[in-house]
Amino acid sequence: MFALVALIELATFLLVESQIGIWWALAIAFGTAVVGSYLVRRSGIAVWRRLREKAGQGMLPGRELSDGAAILVAGAFLISPGFITDILGFTLLIPGVRRLIYQQLTRRFTSRVQVVRSEVDVIDVDPID
């Protein structure tokens, strides 16, 4: 899979380079890496803040965990050289795209997982003197 992606990225780079020149192609590749790393950092910090707020309120941060995973994958795509992986990385940084992914994953796994809630009674026992 990695070899196939590398070949596709190389072919895409050569196509772009033949149309706009090597220096512009390299400038775009470098620019997307710089802009992408900034956006990944900013998005990651925002998600981390929301995750901590939800956890602090005693709520399950499912959406925040999903967003964090998508941002992590986006960062991996953006630091790898290539135009196609950059497009995928920038796409994962769009909140609406991450929301659609979360909704699809929730639908898929909700039908396969049964959640059982249980309440535990806490008994206050006085220690024996």
Low-pLDDT runs: none
Count structural domains: 1
Structural class: mainly alpha
The value of Rg in angstroms is 22 Å
Helix content: over 70%
Q: What are the secondary-structure elements, in order, as H or E? A: HHHHH
Largest sheet: none
Give the overall average pLDDT.
Answer: 86
The total of beta strands comes to 0
Shape: elongated
Count of alpha/pi helices: 5
C-alpha end-to-end distance: 68 Å
Strand residue content: under 5%
Structural features, described:
With 129 residues, the protein is mainly alpha-helical. It has one domain (2-110). 76% of the residues lie in helices and 0% in strands. The protein contains five helices and no strands. It has helices spanning 2-20, 22-56, 62-79, 83-92, 95-110. The longest helix has 35 residues, at 22-56. The protein starts with a helix and ends in a 19-residue tail after the last helix.
